Hints:
Oligomer: single chain
Number of domains: 1
Largest sheet: 2 strands, antiparallel
Strand content: 15-25%
Structural class: alpha+beta
Order of helices and strands: HEEH
Amino acid sequence: MFKRPACVDCHRVAPQTNTAHTLLSKSFGWRLSRSKGPGGAAGVEWRCPPCWRLRKAATAKPETNS
């Protein structure tokens, strides 16, 4: 068993699975993003499906009608 990650936004703990790869599947839909920690160190951020949808909508580029 691996340590269950928590969503960086809402702090929801991921469901119990055998591996982190299972969380990335369509049935669970968790997402993993790269981040920079203190001092520029590389890190990762887990997001649950609802928080991922909010982040994706907030960072989406507006469409331009050219």
